[in-house]
Amino acid sequence: MAKQNELPIIQRMYDLIQWYVPRLNKFPRNYKHSLGDRIQAQLYALLEGLIRARYAREKASLLESLNVELEVLRYQTRLCKDFELLDVRRYGHVSKLINEIGESLGGCGHARSDVALSVPIRGSIRFFQPRNTQNTRKG
Question: Which of 8, 36, 79, 122 could form a disulfide with 24 if both were Cys (CB 3.0 to 4.6 A apart)?
Fold first, then answer.
């Protein structure tokens, strides 16, 4: 349930955690305590970082580091798909959620004209698309 005074990006991150953690807990043991634990820690670190950035005076460096952490989460999520821990439908759903956070995160840095980052925020980078394994040629 969204609080009215919460920033949308924090609520999106909260919703992502609520969606992702129950699925991580259902991973097979050999992935649950390695990749699953890393993703879970990454999710909580991102939420904590967003809350800290909300109250920080100098947001630029925090937002930049959060963008890097989000990129790590993207790759970890891709591994889940590649290891067949997430099917394509769930991977598509979680990709959408993470991309929405990335777009909001990218917008946070650009919304303030006095913030200048040495490295541009790449929050709108899209997930890797699943390869089409079917041959579409006819004939």
Answer: 36
